[in-house]
Amino acid sequence: MFGLSKLFSAKSVQKQPIISALAAYRSAAFAVGIEQDFIADITQNTDKSITVKLNLPFAAQSEMPHVAQFLTERLKIDVNVTASVHLKEAAKFKAIKHIVLVASGKGGVGKSTTAVNLAGSLKNEGAKVGILDADIYGPSIPMLLGLVGSEPVTKDNKQLQPFDANGIKAQSIGFLVPSDDATVWRGPMASGALSQLLNETDWGELDYLIVDMPPGTGDIQLTMSQKVPASGTVIVTTPQDLALADAQKGIAMFNKVNVPVLGLIENMSHYICEHCGEANHVFGKDGAQKLALKHGVPVLSHIPLAIDIRESSEQGKLIADDTDAVISKTYSAAARLVASTLYYQQHHNAIDVVITED
Ligand SMILES: Nc1ncnc2c1ncn2[C@@H]1O[C@H](COP(=O)(O)OP(=O)(O)OP(=O)(O)O)[C@@H](O)[C@H]1O
After folding, report:
1. Which of 28, 182, 269, 288 has its CA 20 to 30 A from that of 353?
2. Domain coordinates of the chain in residue numbers?
3. Maximum CA pair distance of the chain?
4. What is the pLDDT of residue 276?
5. What is the DSSP letter of 304?
6. From 3.40.50.300, 1.10.10.10, 3.40.1190.20, 3.60.15.10, which CATH number describes the 96-347 domain?
7. Listed range (8-22, 58-72, 289-303) with the worst mean pLDDT
8. Whose CA is nearest to atom 19 of ligand 1?
9. Considering the domain 4-85, what is its CATH architecture?
10. pTM for the full predicted model
11. Ligand 1 pocket, residue 140 CB under 6 Å
12. Is 112 exposed, middle or buried (0-12, 13-18, 19+ CB in 10 A)?
């Protein structure tokens, strides 16, 4: 075997140690390492440092500085890692590769806030992203993305143009139907409106389309879930008993319609004290974890109760876009995990989602 210094002083870089080191890298999103398939190029620079170019099959660009640090420490040579995102799978609906439903068993748990920040984070992780607001009871995506007052535009009187909200393609059921009418809606009407919106919007090519579902587990949510060719669902809950009981109903509902539950997001999980930095579990502790264990699904993220989140929402800005905010890193980690779960679900069966009936 060559010594490392010899390897990297050679004219053509020896790739095997780098391939092996990438395979040994571990994180929540890269649970089985970085596969050789993901490597686009390895080059040696004139200063002897190495540049690794990756072609990621799921959105996880922001993790590359960690990968670079890992390689640098392991190989004892400066390594720089760049990545672009190219999902391998064929589009499942029009030119959309994955449709992900964001649901909650009950209202007010922060489902829309989570949905929109997940969309923003997936975009920041290098993916082409859209969001469809299907919450007929209280369509809040226009407000959260600063689109209130915008009028939908059609192309050739046929296709609705999605709005561009800072790089996210957005459409809302709220632009089409007054929410007051929703109280008298039934499942088929609501799912018909959702299908129409999905079909008649000119989404173009998307890696991920996030659908903000109406809260609850009734007839409307059930028929809507059946109508959408979703790759999976993320269930948002709070640590409270009542919200968890409702989240459980959500898991059972998606089980019934064969939509894989990618995981739970525990929102308003804890509050970080501004003075001492301690985490206070205002609504209880470990609730989502227990529910997740019972149903064999992962907890994708614990999102704190944070004033910044509410304030950004009210201003129609995404906290996920504020890369200096600590909370934006939490949303990013959740987004990478959603993206990698979708990938491994299809390509490795590494993540087994087991859903029980109760
Ligand atoms: N982690 C959080 N920290 C602080 N405030 C939050 C957090 N998540 C959501 N909120 C706030 O809670 C309120 C409800 O959030 P949101 O509208 O996202 O809930 P929802 O579950 O979608 O509600 P609905 O059931 O009405 O659709 C909003 O004012 C939002 O800014």
Report:
1. 269
2. 4-85, 96-347
3. 74
4. 81
5. -
6. 3.40.50.300
7. 8-22
8. 110
9. 2-Layer Sandwich (3.30)
10. 0.92
11. yes
12. buried
